[in-house]
Amino acid sequence: MKSAAAPAGHAGAPARGSGGHPAGSSLLRGLPLLPSLVLLAVFLAGPIVYCVYDAFTDAQLTGAAQTHFVGLANFTRAFGDPDFLNALWLTMVFVVGSAVVGQNTLGLALAVLTEKATRPVRSLTNGVVIAAWVLPEIVAGYLMYAFFYQQGALNDVLGALGLPRQNWLYTLPILAVCLANVWRGTAFSMMVYSAALGEVPRELVEAAEMDGAGVWHRLWHVTLPVIRRSIMTNLMLITLQTLSVFGLIYAMTRGGPGNKSQTLPVFMYQQAFQNSLIGYGTAIALVLLVVGALFSVVYLKLLKVEED
Amino acid sequence: MRKKLLAAFAITVAATLSAAGCGGSASGSGGNSIKVVYWQHLDQNDNKQQKFLASMKTSFEKAHPGKKIEVVPVTASENDYYTKIQLMMRSPSTAPDLVYEDTALINSDIASGYLKPIDSYVKSWADWGSFAKAAKGAVSSPTDGKTYGVPDDTDTRGIWYNQNLLKKAGIATPWQPKTWQDILDTARTIKKKLPGVTPMNFYTGQAGGEQSTMQGFEMLLYGTDAADNSLYDAKNKKWIVGSQGFKDALTFVHTVYSENLGLSKPTALGPNAGAEVGTKLLPDNKLAIDIDGSWMANNWLKTGPRPWPDWAKTMASAAMPTQAGQAPGRVSMSGGWAWSIPAKAKNPDLAWQFTKAIKNKDNSTKWNIIESTTAVRTDVAADPKYLDATPTNKFFTGLVAYTHFRPALPKYPQVSNAITKAMESVTTGQSSVDQAAKTYDQDLATAVGSDSTAKGAR
Amino acid sequence: MATTDLRPAATAGTGGRGLRSASAAGSGRRRVRPARIAVNVVLLAVCLAFVLPLAWMVLASISSTASFELTLPSPPTLDNFHAILNTDTTFRPLLNGLLLCGGATLLCVVVSILAAYPLSRYRSRLRRPFLYTVLFTTGLPITAVMIPVYSMFVQVDLIDSMGATVLFLTASALPIAIWLMKNFMDGVPIVLEEAARIDGANAMQSLARVVLPLMWPGVIVVTVFTFISMWGNFFVPFVLLLSPEKLPASVSVFTFLSAHDQTQYGQLAAFSIVYTLPVVMLYLLLTRKLGGGFALGGALKG
């Protein structure tokens, strides 16, 4: 794309040529960014830089008057700490299980199905799924606790169906928190995909239909490639959101039993605020940041083909 | 470096915000007023302290015209309460003048320099002589020996049992076990004779936090041979690893849960075990023996969460025995809270005046009765008004003679966490007693540094 | 795969909503009946699964003996609501929450629209690095930065200030808001602006007159999204505000739970309902303006 304005209809490519403008005006054009930049620099960048510094110290909230620079000690401690490695692993399970597989697939499925459903069913589905999404996190946490509780609703249903009752929060805590996150977060993916599917040209689907392509074939070879960018963006956003989920898990299991549902944000909270190890806690938070960045880089690599 | 970084951000923020026109409200402690911060429990019905402090404020302000007391509750979980007061005490502008401190954590805050030594104040306070020695020990620093708070209340721990259930199972009452074995044997009898009744409650697991460590594990550990030195050797300043006593205590936990003598594992390991025991199982006559704190009756008072008029007829108490009945035969653990003056308090003198007022004999008695906690003043402990206020006060106050305090060191919370982890792994059966003890030794070394540990007796 | 070729020129930017419903209706009419019935049945089953957890909240709130068990209240009672509907427990915290979260959401939306415009319309070598740096920070749990933030607020005497807390909440929600907003704005074709430009409008005028009206669905999504995340945030107000009378509803949820005594499940459920209502109302209000639909992401394409 050269300096000319984007061709008509090329909505995906935001571009305005810089040719013809004097260099000084680019500063002026960036002016609307200023309020954001100031807010981000002061309230987020500042504390984050400070956190990065803290991660290399033995800072404590209580228990010591002095803080020392300890180099990489917090990080070497983390990677030698079986509890940290456990938390890292569970974080991966949680993100892949509840976001990449759970929310993403269910969201897509619901979007595809609601397109084909009758109007009242479509509205009902949308309403119910979104209701779970608008609940405050802590409320969702208690509802999910009650749902998976030994004498809770889920087991009532299983019992009524003649299926074995499970003590979900005890025997399968990570599955329970994954399902909880699917319940709470699927609406986001569903909305993204509903909008995306609306832009799949009907002629294309119908042409494939004429050729005798089955439902799955159409979905896989026609629809999904068209909405690929939406898939990638959705994955990136839900991954980052799921990575920092804390309240939901904390309300449901406190990371337990033992450390069987202790993801990195929960582990970080316990180290930083229960054990007052601010230095160690922030080091863990930084690892979490890196994990998020790694996921994003993977998605971006997959996206790259289409980025102008 | 930290200071400079912070200052740089601070200046930017100040510039931004003064431009935006929003300033913070200045805190109100001047020369004639103080700010008193305490922990408001996460239970709306429990506003005893709120009412008590409000009445103290009123009478103090009346007796000292021109002085103002601002009482600020922090409503949060215990953990978040500490986070908040520690943050507040870090800077002069937010530091309260008087703060409510758990004696188990007070040493952490002393080590951080958050608190002010009050030796010069207590020296000239006649009442100071009436405070129990053990309680004074809990508020003084092991490093500089100075006093950092006035003890507010304490508690002891022992065994609660349901007389009717024990009788039904054919066990003679009053019941006083002599050894750990006695407890297990009685529980086994109950299990056999009374199906549907949980024989005993022994707190365990990480979700229970300090409840598991203190009402549970330490009641065993401090009854082993090493007694006061079983967890921490104060003389040599070493944490104990690899001791037989530690393993024996874990074996007890393992026995309780592998033989299903305790609560169902999910309940025991869940975050609500305490409420389940106090407000459901015991008053429902579904639990026979409970190793728990002196405050349990609070659950059953008219004002409590589960009123139970018959509790005094049904429940009786016994002391926790030492492992094999070795001298002194009984064991108990104590904690408690204290009033401390932060180092950065603006008006420590007035804060001290107020402390003296709320901790004089009359008000101490009133408070111990309201909250049914154990008295820290010996004169209150001998007062019939206090002793008769709750039927069990006398018994649990008597346990003060056998009680132990936790090593109130900055690292203690991490050690406690490691203990609950070991308990949890033997409760679930995830690891054997030996494995769990080994993991604990490693966790301890990570938490306190391996040069601060010493091998215990085998 | 060059997906852009497949996108018909006419649909771009005008929002996928209208088109989607049209196509759905169109294709629906020609669907074979049994398949459609099957789809409906599957969706109803999903609905049931999603509704079930909500059932506890409703039943417990009108029960006098609530626990975490799912039981029918006998008889139903409004006592729980009576117990919580007072100034200290509910009204003041809700009002504080509305001030804090409402103010921060408004600010966040305005500021992110402004930021999105240059990011969407002008090319710069800094744009991508900036966007992705901003995006990565959303993966950081906000609890991690609260201690430096507290120290900072204390130094400049902003602790316990609602205004400053609003600014911090705004900043913490900005990364994702800017990111979403920029993507929505990308969906508005630049040609439409050209006309306004020819008429002599400057950048801000064409943003206000041409771009904003077209990306209204996106703005609403960002608004709801921002508000929800703030409304549930407990730790930020808890740390930054000291006076109990300034604390929002997210902090007072915790007053129904207690570590040592009985949790008041019925009141917790009742409060949860009251606490959730503002978000639901905001959502309904904003989407009603769009004609009942929702359109996250016509432009969420990368």
At CATH level 3, the topology of the domain at 83-270 and 284-306 in chain A is: MetI-like fold
Q: How much is the average pLDDT of chain B?
A: 88
CATH class of the domain at 83-270 and 284-306 in chain A: Mainly Alpha
Distance between the termini of chain B: 48 Å
How would a crystallographer describe the biggest sheet of chain B? 5 strands, mixed
Low-confidence stretches of chain B at least 5 residues in length (pLDDT < 50)? 18-29
What's the helix count of chain B?
20
The CATH architecture designation of the largest domain in chain B is 3-Layer(aba) Sandwich
Total DSSP E strands of chain B: 15
Assign the structural class of chain B, choosing from mainly alpha, mainly beta, alpha/beta, alpha+beta, or little secondary structure: alpha/beta
What's a concise summary of this model?
The complex is a heterotrimer of chains A (308), B (458) and C (302). Chain A has 308 residues and is an all-alpha fold.
Give the topology, please.
The complex is a heterotrimer of chains A (308), B (458) and C (302).
Chain A: H1 24-29, H2 34-54, H3 73-79, H4 82-116, H5 119-134, H6 137-148, H7 153-160, H8 168-171, H9 173-197, H10 202-210, H11 215-226, H12 228-243, H13 247-253, H14 264-274, H15 278-303
Helix pairs in contact in A: 3-15, 4-5, 4-9, 4-12, 5-9, 6-9, 6-13, 9-12, 9-13, 10-11, 12-15, 14-15
Chain B: H1 2-20, E1 33-40, H2 48-63, E2 68-75, H3 78-89, E3 98-102, H4 106-111, H5 119-123, H6 133-138, E4 150-154, E5 157-162, H7 163-168, H8 180-193, E6 198-201, H9 210-221, E7 232-233, E8 238-241, H10 244-258, H11 265-269, H12 273-281, E9 287-293, H13 311-314, E10 315-318, E11 320-321, E12 330-334, E13 336-340, H14 348-358, H15 361-371, H16 378-381, H17 384-387, H18 393-398, E14 403-405, H19 412-428, H20 433-448, E15 453-455
Parallel strand pairs in B: 1-2, 1-3, 6-9, 8-15, 12-14
Antiparallel strand pairs in B: 3-13, 4-13, 5-9, 5-10, 7-8, 11-12
Helix pairs in contact in B: 2-15, 9-19, 10-19, 10-20, 19-20
Chain C: H1 16-30, H2 33-61, H3 79-84, H4 87-121, H5 127-136, H6 146-155, H7 162-186, H8 190-198, H9 203-214, H10 216-231, H11 235-240, H12 249-252, H13 265-289
Defining traits:
heterotrimer; A: MetI-like fold; C: 302 residues; mainly alpha; MetI-like fold; 13 helices; 67% helix; 0% strand; disordered N terminus; disordered C terminus
